[in-house]
Structures are given as C-alpha cells and as structure tokens.
Amino acid sequence: MKRLTCIFAIVLGLATFTTASVVGYSSAGSVTAAGTGLFETGATLGGVALQGVRLGTGVFIEADGTASGTFHAVLQGSALGISRELTVEGKVDAGTVSADGRATFSGTASFDFGDGTPPLPAVTFSVIAGTDGVVLAIDSTTLPATALTTGAITIE
Amino acid sequence: MTTKKRTCLVAAGLILAAVTVTFAAFFQSFETDTSGWTGATRVTSGTHSVPSKTGAFHAEDQNLSGLTYTFWGGDSKTFPPGGYTTSVDIYLDIAPPYINGSLTGYANDTRFDWSSAIGTPGCDHRRDFVFNAGFYKDVDTTGAGPRFVISASNNAGRGSSFPKNPGRMPYTINVEGWYTFEHQFRDNGAGVLAVDLRIKNAAGLVLMMWTLSDPSDVIGSTVGGNQYGWFVQNEFSPALPFDTSMLLGFQDFCQAPASTPGAKVTAGGWITVTGGKGTFGLTAKANASGTASGNLTYQDHAQNMTVKSTAITSVIVNGSCAQILGTATVNGAPGTGFDVNVCDNGEPGKDSDTFSIFMSNGYTASGPLGGGNVQIHK
User: Fold this and answer.
1) Alpha-carbon distance B375 to nearest alpha carbon in chain A (angstroms)
2) β pairing state of A66-79 and A44-45
3) CB B186 within 8 A of CB B196
4) Do B279 and A35 touch (CB under 8 A)?
5) B286 contacts in A (CB within 8 Å)?
6) A122, pLDDT greater than 90
7) What number of other Cβ atoms are within 10 A of residue B88's Cβ?
8) Taking Cα atoms as reference points, which of B188, B182, B225, B235 lies closest to residue B206?
9) With an 8 Å Cβ cutoff, are B267 and A74 in contact?
10) Chain B contact probe: residue of A54, A72, A120 with most B CBs at under 10 A
11) Which of A1, A39, B25, B328 is the most exposed place for a label (fewest CB within 10 A)?
12) What SS3 class is residue B80?
C-alpha cells in the first residue's frame, strides 16, 4: 500500500511538473541516474506486463531547450509467463528543468522488445524525471510511473 | 597529460584491470610522447642498438645530472587501501657493443640510482626507496667481469649509498637486457609502511627482492601517498635507456589534474561486474576556464552498492576517451575518491564503448558496455 501511495504521489508531482513545462519554463541542468525502480501494478507495453526498470542515464540540458546525452533503460516484465526485458537506447536532444527540481527530456531511441525481433531503430521517447522516479513515454504510449527503489537520480 | 598518452593509459588500465583487477593510474611507454616525465628523451627502438622493451619507442636519461623524474601523474595525499605499485623498465648494458661505443664498457663502479618516494598526508616528502645500481668489471665476492651489482636502501648518491654494500644484500646481474624495477608500497599488517623492491627479468620473473620498512612510517599519520620516481644519479654516458613506467593504485592527487576546458561527457548504461551488472549515469564537463562539474551515479547490483558523486574535480578529455576524477558517497557514507574512465568508440555504444571505475576503497570494475552509450561531446 505504501508503494502505491508513493507512486500516486509521484504521478501527481509529475503531472504538476508537466503542466509547468508546458507553460515554457526552461533552465539548464543535468540528469544523472543509475538505479532500479518498480512500475505501478498493471503496467503493460506491447503485451508485456512490466514490473521493474533498470536505468543508466546521463543528460545535459541547456537553457535553450536543447539537450544531449544518453537514456538507457531496461524494462523488466513477462509475457505468457516468460520473462522479458525490453531495452530503450535513447539519444536525447531536448529537455527542460523545472523550478521544483524535476526534469523532462526527449529524443529518439532504438527499442528492443526482447523477443528476438530486430530493435525498432527510431522510436520517439520522452522522460519526466524526479529524484524519486521517472515516467517514460515510448512512441505514443505513456507508461505508468516508476518509483525508484535502489540507486539514485540526481537532477541539477 | 596528452590525448594519446591518456588513451594509452586507459587502454592499459583496462587490460590490467581485466588481468589483475588493478588499475594503472599512470602509464607511460613513450610511444607518442614523454608526458608525465621531466628530462626523458624519447627515442626510437634501436637507438644505441637498444630495442624498445615494448612498442617502437622508449626513453633515455641523457642529462646525467639527476634531472630525470616523474610524479606518476601527480603526487597523492592518501595511502590507498591495498597500497600501490610503481615500476619502470631499465636497460642494463653489460656486453659489447656498449652504448658509449667502447668495447670494454664503462669505468668500474659507474652508477645509477632509481628511487620511488612516498610523501606525507600533507604532501611533503617522507622517504625515498632506492635501487642503488653499479656497473662493475672487477673481481670480488659479487662476481667477475662486466656485470651490474644492485642493492636497495633509503639513500642515493656516492656519499650515501653503495651498490656492493654487503649489508644490503647486493645482487649481481650478468645478462644484458631489460629489467623491471618495481616498488610495492604496502601496509605491513600493523599500519606501518613496508616497501618491497623487486627486480624482474624481461619475462616477469622476480630475480631479487628487498623489503624496507621503518617503524616511524605510520600509514595515515606520517605516511601519505605517492611522490616521485627519480633517477637521482646517472653516470651512464651518453644515455641510460628506460621504458614502460606505471603506477598501479588509486591516487587522490594533492592538486587535481587540470581539466580540459570545454570538456563535456555524458554516459549511461551498464557493464558486467562480478556476480551481476553495474549500471551508471554520468554527466561531466569543464567550463572555459577548466573548472569541472557534473555528477556520477554508479550502482553495483551484485554488491548492492550505490556510488553517488559529491564533487567532480577533474574532467580530462583525450580524443575518444575521458577521465573523470572526484569524490563520492558509497551507500550514503562520504569520503571515497573515484577515478572513472570512459571511451566513446562509436555508435551504438553496446559492446563498443567502455566504462571503468576505480575507487579509493579498492573497488574496481571495468569493461565494454552491455548496454547504453558514452558520448564525448568535446
């Protein structure tokens, strides 16, 4: 129950941030992350029930809204009772940092469904990051928030 | 240090890490330059009929005045857990044709002294540990005919040391060639510094070892980190050849190495570590005046260990590789130094780019990326 409450709080916080970013707040900063997180129960993507995520990210965000760096995420889940790992290898090209310390960034990624098929080479993605977790959107699908369980996300 | 040398350093470090789980904090084999050394003259293999120990170049000490030395990339404040090791390869010219053009060699009792010194926690000099070497062709208990006789002490120079000193276990070498002169600085088990001085042949076989220790050299109190490596004395004219020099171990520099102005490095991904994965995120840069900033987060999932930087002190970009130095918390506990090296070897980064981390607590991990990417923006 505590985890659900936490995730709910994250989603509310991120939603607030998203609203703020839409009105144009932009500041230079960086996002540095290594850790693991858990998805809200019921998260699915392409028929895969998602449980967790493993992150490795380094992104610089400029004041003009451009950004550079890497977003690497392995989404861990299962389909038909078989474990699957979906891999996002993202190249970041835009971003903002909000006054409340959250950041959003986006770019294009290769996306590997982990089912043996070739990775999709140029999928758009975006991430809303807080020090307590991330919300990842892949193509047109926004996944439920993940709450950081180990490691750290640093936003400056 | 220069780009090529740092690249070399990183490559050597990765190789060494894979083989010995040790990281070469300093590596110079003179293949591209002599950076990190003062007084070293870079020469091609075959100069004075001496083949380089490794590669196509080595160095010579030609100044004969005790002005050839290195600080191994910089002197350090703290004695690292596990200690550290310095080494240099020196060519012992024993048989004709001699480097000086003579058929009879050098004058009897021609000497060189090679010292690796340690400092105090305040970065002052503490003590030298010296190989005292001499060329001899006389006859006595150390042998007969052309040979080197070597011993070890804490002193250098003719007035304070003597290679044949019977109280210093003099060792005789009769075969010309490259020899590795190694200093291993370690804790004797009671918190006191002990230094093992070893001579190895070109195959790496230990021929002789001396151990020097003084009870007043208390690690963390009177003893800090590395200082110089120095040819304190060299009477071999016109040159004493030497090659591959390195320091293995963590260095927390007395003065942070200068960052590359405008450097900008990002990285994220994972490497394989013992028992699992190590994931990392890195943002590091230096402004136009060379002030470094950024963040590192590293997580060893097998050890449940999270490293989170508290300061980035140096960002040094050399071609496709970069070195990032700083301090960090480990699972929340402050005060651990780190030395991260990354290489951007193309796109995608998986199986191509590399990441290595070496920490003052002795932790080390390195390897090609299992996923993710490294980008050297400048």
Assistant:
1) 7
2) unpaired
3) yes
4) yes
5) none
6) yes
7) 24
8) B182
9) no
10) A72
11) A1
12) coil
User: A102 with A130: CB under 8 angstroms?
Assistant: yes
Taking residues B317-345, what's their average pLDDT? 95
Strands B192-200 vs B206-218: parallel, antiparallel or unpaired: antiparallel
ipTM for the complex shown: 0.83
Which pLDDT does position B23 carry in this prediction? 65
Residues of B in contact with A32 (CB under 8 A): 281-283, 294-297
Whether residue B184 is found in the same domain as residue B321: no
In 3-state terms, what secondary structure has residue B180? strand
Cβ atoms of B26 and B73 closer than 8 Å: yes
- Kindly state the DSSP code that residue B55 receives in the 8-state scheme: T
Chain B residues closer than 8 Å to A72 by CB: 268-270, 371-373
Task: Tell whether B287 and B166 lie within a shared domain.
Answer: no
d(CA B212, CA B118): 13
B337: containing domain: 264-376
> How close A79 comes to chain B (CA, Å)?
22
pLDDT band at B22, cuts 50/70/90? low
Same domain, B139 and B165: yes
Backbone phi, then psi, for A22, in 5-degree steps? -65, -35
Mean pLDDT of chain B: 92
Tell me how many domains chain B contains.
2
Is residue B259 within 8 Å of B286, Cβ to Cβ?
A: yes
Asked if B282 and A33 come within 8 Å (Cβ–Cβ), the reply is no
Whose CA is closest to B267, among B332, B320, B207, B201?
B320
In angstroms, the Cα distances linking A9 to A15, A52, A53, A65 are 10, 18, 19, 27
The span from the first CA to the last CA of chain A, in angstroms, equals 31
Confidence of residue B347 (pLDDT cuts 50, 70, 90): confident
Give the range among A52-61, B8-17, B128-137, B249-258 with minimum mean pLDDT: B8-17
Query: Of B248, B278, B312, which closes a domain?
Result: B248
In chain A, % of residues over pLDDT 90: 74
- State how far residue A110 is from chain B, nearest Cα, in angstroms: 10
Could A154 and B308 be called an inter-chain contact, meaning their C-beta atoms sit closer than 8 Å? yes
- From B267, B270, B350, residue closest to A58, measured CB to CB: B267
Q: Mind listing the pLDDT tens digit for each residue in A31-72?
A: 999 999 999 988 999 899 999 999 999 999 999 999 999 999
Question: Does B198 map to a domain?
Answer: yes
B37 with B127, same domain? yes
Q: For position A140, what pLDDT does the model report?
A: 85
Q: Is residue B253 part of a domain?
A: no
Asked whether A133 and A146 are in contact (CB, 8 A), the reply is yes
CB contacts of B295 in chain A (<8 Å) are 30, 32, 154, 156
- Rounded Cα–Cα distance for residues A114 and A112 (Å): 5
Which residues, other chains included, contact A102 with Cβ-Cβ below 8 Å and sequence gap of 6+?
A: A13, A14, A17, A128, A129, A130, A155
Distance CA B238, CA B232 (A): 16
